[in-house]
Amino acid sequence: MAEEAVAAPTQEPGRALDADRPSVSGLKRIGFIALLFAASAVFLTPFVWLLSASLKARSQVFNRDWIPDPVQPGNYAEVFNQAPFLSWLGNSGLVGVLAAGSVTISSAVVAFAFAYFRFPFRNVLFGLVLATMMLPGAVTMIPTFLIWKGLGQVNTLTPLWAGNLFASAFYIFLLRQFFLTLPRELFEAARVDGANYIQMFRSIAVPLVRPALIVVFIFELKASWTDLIKPLIYLQNSELFTLPRGLKALVDAFGTQGGEGKWELLMAASVLVTLPVIVIFFLGQRYFMEGIATTGSKG
Fold it and tell me: Per-residue pLDDT averaged across 96-124, rounded?
């Protein structure tokens, strides 16, 4: 019997050459990472310059050198000597936590009511709540001030956060969308087991939308931390200043127009104001990104 010839596997022309080339998806990934690095560098450049300027001597603050020579870390100690910075930091922390916590809880309660309960004119009422976002803050600024003045709360920290006890239209909308994605059968089963509405909200709804609640908390904490308008309107005693209001006072005292031109101290104070926000973001980054991803998948 004739010996059968074993056919060698054929290879398509150019296959071996294509195997050595990076895949198209790999090139896209490299390009995307390079784009992220470039965007990160653009966004970090102002902060890096601020950090560099805060470590320079007064005469070198606005030069083109990125590396201070000599390095003067004493600028940060001088900030605490020139102003009650620790008091301002404590006021900002207190106001930020109270504002973020109160608006998160109140908005979640209202959003759960809009998502779960069925009542007449529910959509109309929800539309009116959303319509309040169309009102500029300047429209309600004077009436709100007169209310707090009538209550004797001017020159206190209360007006900076107590308004958040009445929820926020944007956060109500955001949290309502999350609550609507929860299966209604979960709540019906809890009702059969004897749970009341408060128990359903606390034990079922809140744990399932925790990423969204953390997103709301971080958003409002950042907004409160950087708010300057309310402290300018309500605070008169320097001991009650928050960090943005205190930084404004330092600009008035150390700026070039009527001040002493101590820009190195202003840069150091600006770094101290910015760092807590960065730290808070990194501490809550995992929950924050989880909430953003969940928003995208459920929207």
Answer: 93
